[in-house]
Hints:
Blueprint: H1 4-24, H2 31-41, H3 60-65, H4 68-80, H5 88-94, H6 98-126, H7 133-181, H8 186-196, H9 200-215, H10 219-230, H11 233-243, H12 248-280, H13 282-306
Amino acid sequence: MIPLEAVLPAAAAGALIGLAVRAAMPARRDLASVLDRLDVSKTSGPTSSPLLAPATPTTAASLAAGSLQERVGTRLLGEFGGRLTLPAEDLNLLGISPAAHLGKRFLFALYGLLLPQLLQALLAMAGAPFPFAVPALFSLALAALFWLWPGKEVAREAAAARLIVRHAAASYLERVALARIANSGAAQALTQTAEVGDGFIFVRMRQVFHQADLSGVTVWDALKQLGDELGIPELTRPADTLALAGDGAAVYTTLQAQARQLRIALLTDAKAQANAASAAMILPVTFGIILMLVFVMIPITITILGS
């Protein structure tokens, strides 16, 4: 019978390994919940533009009320903010504050750094310690992996959000073109068309247009600044076109051409993704066929050799 003193460290080590594997696995987030979060939290994160969301000064009360990630990230930004590179465009698009993102990365890296040391301590208690170099190398590797993982997750979510924005921008261009050919002014065409949409990017545009109206900034400059801040050039093109708004027919033709080019680009990207998915299935299908043939040929080969 295995003594209890040997079972408990092994069980604890297995639980820690399971937590590490679960933390390293990509979370399958529901896209609808991500978009709902975008609708609610667009004005919560600090940005570099006063038109997008003016940053509020950080106070001791707000730090105390924030999450652990926010508090840790704020302290790190205060100490090393000028030497750290963060995906500002992706964070602005997803409505995540730089402090929360940096705090999450630091806490993940700290967890990866300490996990092998805890396993080493548990194994030492069980009487089977590893050499010191082994957990040290694992600590550095896990810390680097867990530090990079939140950045990859943010990039993946931002890419999915930008794809939705590109589809919305194609429809927006066509509607603005129709409003412009109907003799609506440039500012009126942009603002009234944004009132029709219900996606998170239309909510963001309505907020920016309202702030631009209060600040005395033209709506096309506000839309261009929004596209630059979020890294979405599909929003800056109609702003550049309407900034030079002259004859309604000429603007209509230009906007329609931009919408057509955008839809062609989206169709090309969708075909490329479908081809990549089909190419990725070639190897598993080929391996399955070979494996099936092996299982079919084994009995025949044994029968032939035994006769």
